[in-house]
């Protein structure tokens, strides 16, 4: 609750921008877009720098919450159909990438990777996957027995070629 109130307070402070568009940042910001400056100002006000903690807060509130609410609007049986979730998944990916780019934090990064692993564990764990299976026993037998049979034949050929001792035959 305390974090949410702080988050809302910072965004309300953006509405009453006293710098009149001039940057008071202590660090470089990715680009000069309006939303990028909000992200950078937020990190400046809360953390003093574009940290992974700031990225976590921003991506959770701006990206992950949107993704979760959009997924909640779908039927859980539709979660496994790629055409239904492709746009939502892409939007989440782009959102995390945009925030990371604004904060000049490399993307992908461990935080984003953890976010996507958690998403897969929460939403896609029951989706069927195409698993590789062993080939039929006849194929396995043929692939195993072929080299076993060839070894004695190759040894016999070497012995026959070198039997006369001069090696010229």
TrEMBL record:
Residues that span the membrane, as ranges: 138-160
Gene3D superfamilies documented for this protein: Receptor activity modifying family
BP GO annotations: angiogenesis; calcium ion transport; cellular response to hormone stimulus; G protein-coupled receptor signaling pathway; intracellular protein transport; protein localization to plasma membrane; receptor internalization; regulation of G protein-coupled receptor signaling pathway
Compartments (UniProt record): Cell membrane
Signal peptide (residue range): 1-21
One Gene Ontology MF term: coreceptor activity
Coiled-coil stretches noted in the UniProt entry, renumbered to this chain: none
Keywords: Cell membrane, Disulfide bond, Membrane, Receptor, Signal, Transmembrane, Transmembrane helix, Transport
Domain of life of the native organism: Eukaryota
Membrane topology annotation: Single-pass type I membrane protein
GO cellular component terms, semicolon-separated: cell surface; plasma membrane; receptor complex
Family of this protein: Belongs to the RAMP family.
This protein's name: Receptor (G protein-coupled) activity modifying protein 2
Natural source organism: Seriola lalandi dorsalis
